[in-house]
């Protein structure tokens, strides 16, 4: 985790802890690296001065401390001390050395399937403990997961509430990070453990591909995709894609439980470690090509109000083994015309499809064109055969006529004997 020097306005001592470095800052406060007199290092969060007098932020801070106290196990940073009544409320947790999942992926790119499955299995086991405590994290994402030498740790329960709480702080304002929010959070519905499962699936997809499964864009664009569009898992390894796809189901009831996730990811990690090939993915759509950028601002709100339709695959070459629908032949056209006569709307609204043409500008050959060429070929062959037969018959007739003709008569002068000369 990156550390920065203390600034002039930063405190040097908070409670029983002396502060040494800045670890980061968020919407609620600043996180410092501190230590007590025994040398125990802690990550200490202090609420911002401008927010210390805001009762809403004090309430959120109190919920974070309450959530941290209720969770047991090694999946999170252990709570060490807290003071919610101070002028600037603060609390300290055990310091977790190691980079965040976000920083590691940003530096090294997407992780191998075996490593993603191992991290995911440990995180899923940690979420089991979180949910058993009656807490929903609500903002699970790569930057809130620290990769310590003893395994991943979940941090920052700043917006974690009890199960069943609403996801809105103000009307129309969702709490969380776009791209990792569940659809029910965007709609303002009650959160459940399945809400964290959705964010868990998006986090694993990011770890494997170094990108969100819903691409990049403004907050409005990302929230629209989360609610209305399917995730892009084309770059996710085959061994992980089906499970991640189930985590990203729009309906919370269709997502697996954290216990199921822990078991299945452990199996995947073991199979990848043995080098066993991943089973063929089934039922996972692949999104090819870049995502079209959606409009923003007022146009984005109007776009989000439009009825959503299932995305269809773009036109392209027909895969091997698939049959392309054939056009009606000449013999079927009267029936098609009769069908149009029974449906007047088909006559007044012609098909919007434009004819496909080759790069040379010619219409590609279809079934009708091939049939015409076949007929022309047969006609030429038959004509040539007929001509050959006629010529053969004429030759035979001439030969037969020559055999039955009378032989020519040779005319010679009569032989006479000259009379003797007396």
Poorly predicted regions are 159-175, 288-366
**What is the CATH H-level superfamily of the domain at 98-278?**
Transferase(Phosphotransferase) domain 1
Architecture of the domain at 98-278 in CATH?
Answer: Orthogonal Bundle
- End-to-end separation in angstroms reads 163 Å
Shape descriptor reads elongated
Number of DSSP-assigned strands: 12
Helix percentage: 25-40%
How confident is the prediction overall: mean pLDDT? 75
**Sheet with the most strands?**
6 strands, antiparallel
- Relative strand content: 5-15%
Rg value = 41 Å
Assembly category = single chain
The SS-based structural class is alpha+beta
CATH domain fold name of the domain at 98-278: Transferase(Phosphotransferase), domain 1
Descriptive notes:
This protein is α+β, with helices and mostly antiparallel strands and about 425 residues long. Among the domains are: about 1-95, Phosphorylase Kinase, domain 1, CATH 3.30.200; about 100-280, Transferase(Phosphotransferase) domain 1 (Transferase(Phosphotransferase), domain 1, Orthogonal Bundle). It is about 40% helix and about 10% strand. It is built from 12 helices and 12 strands. The protein has helices at about 55-70, 100-110, 115-130, 185, 195-210, 220-230, 240-245, 260-275, 295-305, 335-340, 345-350, 365-405, and strands at about 15, 15-25, 30-35, 40-45, 80-85, 90-95, 135, 145-150, 150-155, 160, 170, 175. The protein has a 6-stranded antiparallel sheet with strand order 1-2-3-4-6-5, with helices on one face. A hairpin with a 2-residue loop joins strand 11 (about 170) and strand 12. Helix 3 packs antiparallel against helix 5. The chain is elongated and about 135 Å long. The termini are far apart. GO terms for molecular function: kinase activity. It holds the Pfam family Pkinase.
